[in-house]
Amino acid sequence: MASLLHFFILVPILGFIINGLTPNKKEGLLSWGAFFTIGIHLFGAIVFIIYWLQNGYPTLNLKDISLFKTNDYEFFIDFCFDKITVVYLFVGSFITFLVTIYSRYYMHREDGYKRFFNTILFFYIGYNITIFSGNLETLFIGWEILGISSFLLIAFYRDRYLPVKNAVKVFSIYRIGDVGLILAMWMSHHLWHENITFLKLSNYEMVHEHLQSHSFFGVFISLMILLSAAAKSAQLPFSSWLPRAMEGPTPSSAIFYGSLSVHVGVFLLLRTFPFWEQQLSVRILIGALGFVTMLIATGIARVQSSVKSQIAYASIAQIGIIFIEVAAGFENLALFHFAGNAFLRTYQLLVSPSVVSYLIREQFYNFSPRQRSIEDSFPKKIEYTLYMLSIKEWNLDSLMYRYLWNPMKMLGNRLNFLTINRVLVFFIPVYVFGLFALYNEEVIPPIIHEYLPILFSLIGLTMVLKSFTERKKARMSWMLIILNHFWVALSISFNEHYKYTETLLYLSGIIVAGIIGFISLTRLQLLEKSIDLDQFHGHSLKHPKIAFVFLLCCLGASGFPITPTFIGEDVIFSHIHENQITLAFFTSLSFIIDGLSIIRIYARVFLGPHVKSVYETAYRSS
Amino acid sequence: MKTHNSLFDEHEILHELKHFLPAQAPLKDFIHHNTLHAFQNLKFYSGIRKASDMFGYKTSLSLDEYRGLYEEQRISPAILKKIITGKKGVALVKEWTEKAISKEFENSSLPKIGAIRSNWKRQYQIDMDSLVHPILFRIICSYLDQGISIWGFPVRQKSFLASLREMERNSFSSFFKTERAKQLLLHDKCDISTLLTILVGDESLFKQYLFDQQFAHQGWSGMVSAIEDQPQTLLDQRRITLHDLIVFELLLEIDALEFRFGKDWTPIKSRLTVQPVNLFAETPQTELNEVLEIWQNAFEWTYYDEVLAGIKMEKNGQKKIANKSFQAMFCIDDRECSLRRYLEQYDADCETFGTPGFFGVEFFYQPEDGKFYTKVCPAPVTPKYLIKEVHAFKKKDRDVHFTKHSHSFYGGWLISQTLGFWSAVRLFVNIFRPSMSPATASSFRHMEKYSKLTIENKNIENKENGLQVGFAIDEMAQRVEGLLKSIGLVKDFAPIVYVVGHGSSSVNNPHYAAYDCGACSGRAGSVNSRVICYMANHPKVREILATRGIVIPAKTQFLGALHDTTRDEIAFFDEDSLSHDNLEIHNKNEVTFDNALDSNAKERSRRFESIDSKLSPEKIHDKIRTRSVSLFEPRPELNHATNALCIVGSRELTKGLFLDRRAFMNSYDYTIDPDGKFLFNILKAAAPVCGGINLEYYFSRVDNQKLGAGTKLPHNVMGLFGVANGIDGDLRPGLPSQMIEVHDPVRLLIIVEHLPEVVLDTIQRNAETYEWFINEWVNLVVVHPETKEFYSFKEGGFVKYQPLKQQVDTVSDMIPLLESNQDNVPVYLIA
User: Fold this and answer.
1) In terms of pLDDT, which residue wins out, B188 or B605?
2) Which region among A126-135, B131-140, B813-822 has the lowest average model confidence (pLDDT)?
3) Which residues of B touch A369 (CB under 8 A)?
4) At what angle do helices B206-214 and B242-261 cross, to 10 degrees?
5) Which of A12, A128, A305, B590 could be a cystine partner for B141, CB 3.0 to 4.6 Å?
6) Which alpha helices (H) appear in A393-473, and where do they start and end?
7) Which phi and psi angles does B722 have, rounded to 5°?
8) R_g of chain B, CA atoms, integer Å
9) A42-51 pLDDT tens trace
10) Closest Cα partner for A82 from A132, A135, A47?
């Protein structure tokens, strides 16, 4: 029975590939492709669920291919199927199925018809991998796919300024969630000394025993999971990304931000519940976060004067309640609530354009000039203050900038003295020295040896910071990103001796992606003269092929599960010791910024209004 | 407000700014108008050139598009040659033809707008728009909001700035990030010129800076300006002015600079390295402009020429009908063109007329239980009358999905776990079996079919809020006379005269008002049709009419109706008032109407991808009905797309022509109007109304991004009055791409059947109307009623026009052609 689970992963992948090969102009074929893929998937899901119920609804676990194995480490794909998966599967395929049919007509004659359906299918792959995942590693694959497909759908209207800007914004929040997950995986390797499956986590005694002796580990892992879940489900302090994600065609907003994508954070909590169930403080924290989010988001929803942002904040508030339910251990209620909220918001978003005629009519017949809301009874000063704070979304949006990105940019700007030449002249000798030292480790005094990994990872971090803030040369920025990985590799090599094959595994994807990406940018530069990073250039308009190849390179270089680097990243992390918080911090920070910098290059060079045509492009503000 | 002896005259500049901003009213009052109305004082080609130069609009098709049309033979070589000869002389034909067809042009000019403000980014490295726009838009939207938010703007009765001041004064928080902006708002003098002095410094740059600033978000500025001019357009009124918007925006800009640089910044004047280009400078004509002009003229005249050739050859319409079975009056609207053709086809003895769809009766309408009055006549008219609906038994459907309770946490908690599952069912049903729902905007809801209307005023004192309830007898007679004489229906009355208004039904369509009758201010024409019928049926009115030469036989009855142009359905009103004989006739006519509507649906379906036009008319009609209630259908109908003609003359002139729903048609009989009295009124309305529709389609089509609304798929409804992309975007006035994609951007050709000298005299009577013609924003051709010669209006006079096209094909059966063709089809003679 468990082996049937493959079906649910393979069908969307197959559909995605077939649709990818269908020519651009064939609207009928493209939409039928998506329709059939998801239709078969839905049908299969219903049949399987019935079969599963008849067989006494066992929790299924399927250990799939092992991608990488050493003595003390194994990276394997694992699938799991239980009540939680069932609910997410049914809701997901049902909504996606309806939205696909909806979009067949809705998207008619739209540029990017193929792009739309392919991204939907891509999203669907990610969604299924996530909900079927049996361990954190598998979940992480789906998680990454969700992030990228979100980015692509928000920036669907890639020739306008705001969608691209907001897509980058959302991606940067997602990136924080990603790293939370990486750190959770890192620590859990050290806690369990294996790649633990969710199934094993449900063994109460085992978890209990482990956490007894390593309570700090437990809290750390739980916090990282909460960070990821909060970012993905738009809880505080990340909430402001959700309304800003509503830039794509309405059905895509409905499926992503109304229903499925935004509830994936809840899924993560439900899945890992057995793990943090025994940590009361964590449960209180999750509940409290949900509670505060619920209050704040409700307030913000009440003052919204645009339909979609109102639905977005109302949905966030409900997810806050779902967090409370999960924390309280009401799993069934949470699942039920998830399904209801997902259906409701999908439908509300889909009919949102009708709101004009409906509410105007309502107003015409039922208007009273002084409609009072509950807040009118507050003391004036409190009322005005709350209103203003809600209108400004409690500064959540600028908060991220003020306390996270801007300091980084400031740091990066300090590095303006770095030019390509200086980078080469200074860092290559240092790197060579580092390599030399690595081969002659015995001559280095242990006290220095201890700090070398941190030093090297710090140099790597400097590289990505510089890359992130580079305003002029796209290729330089790209090169720094690639170099960062070399520093990380060097740094970890000092930390612990392991096989070179592991380093190779880690760097292989990056090297290939790096070289091809560099060539792509060079080619573009030849064709278009200058490409700086100070503004959006929109080159995908004239060079769609280069744009596509470069996008693949970006995915490769950011450790997306299309190259061995994805596994390598995980392996590398497993060599950071559980007590090396500083090293873990630097390395993960450099991963965050690294991803951001990559997506920034892609967005600035290939997306946005085309730099050469002022005419026939939308205003920046629209 | 006053600044003595200065370059900066605030009042004048605001006035000018308002003139240039988009004039579109809130969605519920969407009325088509010339998008570039601000340039109408110039000749068409100079106007669009200047607009393009100032604001970066694309104002014609691109050279490649024209050349493509030429290759597809949709621009005729003969016409192109003729146009070039007319413009450049015979000697230069070869040279200019080559320029038009193959010369490469480099267009590297940048629009002038933004020249000063771009220095914030260039010299100060500050992205002013990103810092100011989101909060500015959000606060304006919240202040103006008509009912989306649950917790409305706390201070609404005061003017915008006063409301902000009040909140700012009594709050622990602030709209601003710095103390300085707050101080300026609360305590100091914060008029525009003071703030500009802080920000810009140089008075000579003030005006241009304000243009730069407001045109960075022309959607919001235009909306504010429109609401300032007609506050009643919002049901829940607000006191906002462009002045207030500018003051607030300037404060936010100062705030952004203060926040970034502290005290350490100087006005933009100090950092200007080069003098910015003057936004208002003359725009010289380039060779490219000339080539584009030639192409546009050639494109237009290729079509016009075909139409005129068709009119010349048309003989079919001149057959006299001895015994008229019925007469039907429709709106001038281009969408009624084909329905009339089918009625005449199914019943050769009927006669149809066209006239603006408010049928000459102007009033406010108040439906039963309505809290407001709705204007149902052309937008510029301010009626003095009120018609009320009484005895309506309507049930007001509600849809719980729009309830605001789902947005609170406790309500949402309950609702998402109960209603949420109902949503899934609803969505499923809606996708597989779309049907009417409370969310649908339906034309038949405008007025309850069996309700009564207070049409007759028996006591002149009966007034409500300064409006007279109903019309007195002589007022009625005057209106009926005016209507009948203007369309030439003064004798030979059939037993039943239908007066058919129109409206439309759509769902998920914020632009629904644009689909209704423009002559009724974006409402359905049902009330107007009933009102005029009541008047024309009134015995006392008929007595008066008889004394004025219009004798309506006693057995003739007028019957109101409403045609839904999306669903192709018709509803008749007051059928029980028909005499026994007439009821029988009516029942027979209804079959004719049904057949005509089925066929009309079939003809329309050829433009729709999702409907197979080869099916039977009844089947197609079903699909058309489903389409109008489908949530996922962004094109319920195509509205005025492809409009290109306005024919003012007798039906006989074009009865035998297939005009492909591209013509506005106003019936008119020159013989009863020798000095053009009625013609004057017709043209006074037709030029701005039809011309406005035509030009809005033109500009939304040629530059859908800047002059249109872009694709409607990502649109987000803002405050119930506008749409924007995403949540932080500028409002998008104009038409979405789904409405204009099949439209050919050609200017309207008005064809008038009368003597050229009378027409010339008529159009010159009113300067505003004449501007449309003399500045060529619409084209005009006169058909001499006796000789059928054409005279084209050029530079203030008429010149004879001989169509180049000699042959127009005759078809006996249009159906195969319509079934196989999705694009515009040429003019045909119908056998």
Assistant:
1) B605
2) B813-822
3) 236
4) 90
5) A305
6) 396-400, 406-413, 420-422, 428-439, 446-469
7) -155, 175
8) 28
9) 999 999 999 9
10) A132
Q: ipTM of this model?
A: 0.92
Gap between the Cα atoms of B146 and B720, Å rounded: 6
Given an 8 Å threshold on Cβ–Cβ distance, is A314 in contact with B412? yes
Neighbours of A267 (CB within 10 A): 26
Would an 8 Å CB–CB cutoff place B626 in contact with chain A?
no
pTM greater than the 0.95 cutoff:
no
For B382, counting Cβ atoms within 10 Å of its Cβ (0-12 exposed, 13-18 middle, 19+ buried), the class is: exposed
CA dist A249 and B634 (Å) reads 12
Q: Determine the straight-line distance between the first and last CA of chain B, rounded to whole angstroms.
A: 69
The 8-class DSSP code of residue A316 comes to: H
CA distance B176 to B198: 17
A589: its two tokens: 């920070």
Joined together, the tokens standing for residue B271 give: 């950092």
A239, A434, A496 from A506: Cα distances, Å: 34, 18, 15
Distances (CA, A) of A125 to A403, A566, B265: 35, 17, 52
Closest CA to A152 of A245, A234, A19, A228: A245
Q: What is the pLDDT of residues A146-182, one digit of tens each?
A: 999 999 999 999 888 899 999 998 998 998 888 899 8
Decide: B654 and B663 in contact? Cβ < 8 Å: yes
Query: Residue A486's pLDDT is what?
Result: 87
Name the residue in chain A with its Cα closest to that of B414: A337
- Are B171 and A384 in contact by the 8 Å Cβ rule? The answer is yes
Instruction: Choose among B93, B64, B104, B517: nearest CA to B334.
Output: B517
CA-CA-CA-CA torsion sign (A150, A155, A157, A161): positive
Pick from B135, B428, B732: CB nearest A622: B732
Q: Which residues of B touch A385 (CB under 8 A)?
A: 171-173
Q: Do the Cβ atoms of B316 and B829 come closer than 8 Å?
A: yes
Strand arrangement of the beta sheet that strand B810-811 belongs to = B657-658, B828-830, B810-811
Percent of chain A past pLDDT 70, that is, above it, reads 98
Extract the tokens encoding B66. 């024209």
